[in-house]
Task: inverse folding
């Protein structure tokens, strides 16, 4: 079974978050890493590969430094990588990114399953997997916490506050997974050494045959017009217990719609 | 900037590492931060740790016997192994001890001096962390001077019969196999002893105030019968255990600097946030002097470690050179730990912070694998040509 995993390179959440003059996230001047939520997708792919046979290809769209996200996935055990990298991509929104991913996946060869994470840890929109499924004409099984492949079908469970849905689709399909699905492995020393020899393709827009007008800041349908730091948290309210502390607390929580 | 990034920016040492070495360091650091660090204070307080689980994890990461070739081992450079030791010891010297005793002592003894059957039987499962090893050289009455050991192996037909006791044996109570060094009629020889052999006993050493997140045992052998094939065939005399010790010392040269770095990073963070007499502790000259001096010693120690690593990878390291590193880096690490403790005031003595744990651990690290005095004597002998051991 051939599995493609979409992975994203994101700024390290431990560091300071900065934006560029054009309101896009600064991805070059800061330390970055493979989005932690994508590690679950890579792990899910590796588990499937280990239980049968096949190959795991990771695909990323991003600046030069994003090669790191591919490398980390290869160190974990993926077999090959694709990095879509072109100056003209800068500022692409979710829809434009999904176009690039779709073209890269088509170019990368035959596939049975496309995996993605729950959301990126920087943009946190969770829309790319759905857009990508649409572009590839695949059934989409999103945000599942379990994943099984049997014969020609894929099955997963999506947990929500009120119910758990079990969703099944025929392959090829796109599946996005949550952080409940598994515990991603650490790259091993052998994995780190082996990754050096694994093939990574770097493709430009021209390689993908995508017109620069359809991506980047200009080609995106949405753009960030301004941003502001979240205001500092307001001082909390102190409930003084005069024998009715419990009641007051309950009233407060009810007023805030917490209960 | 985090203290870690600030130290790196100051020293530029990351630039001396290859990309893979940096990736290895961050992998081990991340594993230790996620899985070990949250439990260290509790393990230290309890004097107990889930050694088997941890060994299994470390096997999965490829850190056990990682510098050995074949038999499921990693085949890494010496420097890469050192870097892994440094990151493990930044968590706790006890965990680095687990890695050292397994990889540098027990596995190295089998790898260097074992028969093909011994290698096939033990190395793959030890590399995977499915079997744990220990290394018994020290005895209650013979530490720095192991030549005087009283443990004896007597030939009986094709078998060997072992009697005696070993003391301070790391992993002794959790081990599946013990490498035991014993006096024979001829020379000192090594034996591969499965710990379920009748006549083998391991008792935990209690009341340690150092290396509490590590198991230490007293081993005793009472008419312990081994087949002839249990002897390590390829070495006779003290050269056997001493060459394994040299491997483990090499890991400590790096490791000790990990403990020191963790202390300094903690102190940097603390000095930044702790206000005394109305301003941050880090803003006072006395504090800055301490921090600067410690950063300097840390840098020198890591540079020495890397220098020795490159020498070893080039094939030309001597035991005296390893002694230089062991002496300096243990001595400076414990000084750094104690100085950092002063910066944290009372908080420095609790297990809330890693510092007192590191400082206490480093007392053992300075003592095992050759005390500082022993290394001074080794270096002194190399310089003067005259042995002052006796
Ligand atoms: C936590 C821990 C774990 C250990 N794990 C292991 C293990 O796994 N396997 C193992 O075999 N051993 C292990 N050891 C033992 C360790 O290697 C010995 O403690 C060490 O070699 C010192 O021996 P000793 O304690 O008998 O001290 P001694 O040799 O009695 O030394 C006492 C003092 O005398 C000094 N001294 C000794 N000789 C001279 C001299 N010629 N001139 C001047 N001063 C001298 C020493 O430097 C020291 O200061 C461990 C020890 C500890 C604390």
Result:
């Amino acid at each position: 079974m051939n599995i493609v995993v979409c992975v994203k390179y994101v700024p390290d959440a431990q560091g300071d978050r900065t934006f560029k003059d054009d309101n896009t996230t600064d991805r070059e001047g800061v330390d970055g890493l493979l989005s932690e939520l994508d590690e679950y997708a890579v792990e899910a792919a590796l588990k499937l590969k280990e239980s049968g046979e096949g190959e795991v290809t990771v695909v990323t769209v991003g600046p030069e430094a994003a090669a790191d996200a591919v490398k980390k996935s290869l160190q974990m055990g993926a077999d090959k990588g694709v990095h879509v990298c072109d100056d003209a991509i800068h500022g692409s929104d979710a829809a434009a990114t999904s176009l690039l991913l779709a073209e890269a996946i088509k170019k990368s060869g035959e596939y049975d399953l496309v995996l993605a994470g729950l959301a990126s840890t920087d943009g946190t929109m969770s829309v790319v997997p759905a857009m990508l499924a649409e572009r590839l004409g695949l059934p989409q099984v999103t945000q599942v916490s379990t994943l099984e492949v049997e014969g020609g079908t894929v099955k997963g469970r999506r947990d929500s506050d009120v119910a758990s849905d079990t969703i099944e689709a025929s392959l090829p399909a796109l599946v996005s997974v949550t952080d409940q699905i598994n515990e991603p492995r650490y790259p091993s020393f052998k994995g780190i050494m082996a990754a050096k020899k694994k093939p990574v393709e770097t493709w430009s827009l021209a390689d993908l045959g995508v017109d620069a007008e359809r991506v980047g800041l200009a080609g995106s349908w949405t753009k960030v017009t301004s941003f502001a730091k979240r205001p500092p948290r307001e001082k909390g309210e102190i409930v003084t217990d005069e024998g009715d502390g419990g009641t007051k607390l309950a009233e407060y929580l009810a007023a805030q719609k917490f209960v | 900037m985090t203290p870690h990034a600030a130290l790196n920016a100051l020293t530029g040492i990351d630039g001396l590492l290859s990309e893979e070495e940096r990736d290895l360091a961050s992998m081990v650091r991340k594993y230790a931060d996620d899985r070990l660090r949250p439990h260290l204070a509790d393990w230290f307080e309890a004097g107990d740790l889930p050694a088997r689980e941890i060994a299994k994890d470390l096997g999965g990461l490829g850190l056990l016997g990682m510098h050995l070739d074949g038999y499921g081992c990693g085949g890494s450079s010496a420097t890469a192994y050192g870097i892994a030791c440094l990151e493990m010891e930044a968590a706790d010297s006890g965990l680095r001890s687990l890695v050292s005793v397994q990889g540098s002592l027990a596995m190295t003894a089998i790898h260097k001096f074992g028969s093909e059957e011994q290698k096939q039987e033990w190395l793959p499962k030890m590399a995977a962390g499915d079997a744990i090893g220990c290394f018994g050289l020290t005895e209650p009455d013979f530490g720095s001077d192991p030549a005087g050991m009283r443990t004896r192996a007597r030939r009986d037909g094709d078998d060997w019969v072992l009697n005696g006791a070993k003391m301070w044996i790391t992993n002794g109570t959790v081990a599946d196999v013990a490498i035991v060094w014993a006096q024979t009629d001829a020379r000192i020889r090594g034996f591969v002893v499965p710990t379920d052999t009748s006549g083998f006993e391991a008792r935990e050493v209690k009341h340690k105030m150092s290396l509490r997140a590590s198991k230490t045992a007293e081993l005793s052998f009472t008419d312990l019968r081994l087949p002839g094939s249990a002897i390590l065939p390829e070495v006779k005399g003290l050269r056997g255990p001493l060459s394994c010790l040299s491997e483990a010392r090499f890991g400590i040269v790096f490791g000790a600097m990990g403990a020191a770095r963790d202390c300094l990073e903690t102190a940097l963070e603390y000095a930044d946030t702790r206000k005394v007499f109305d301003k941050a502790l880090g803003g006072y000259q006395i504090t800055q002097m301490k921090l600067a001096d410690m950063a300097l010693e840390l840098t020198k120690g890591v540079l020495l470690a890397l220098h020795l690593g490159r020498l070893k990878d080039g094939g030309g390291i001597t035991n005296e050179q390893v002694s230089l590193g062991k002496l300096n880096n243990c001595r400076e690490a414990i000084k750094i730990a104690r100085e950092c403790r002063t910066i944290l005031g009372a908080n420095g003595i609790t297990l809330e912070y890693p510092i007192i744990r590191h400082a206490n651990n480093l007392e053992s690290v300075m003592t095992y694998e050759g005390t500082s005095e022993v290394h001074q004597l080794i270096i002194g002998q190399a310089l003067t040509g005259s042995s002052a051991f006796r």
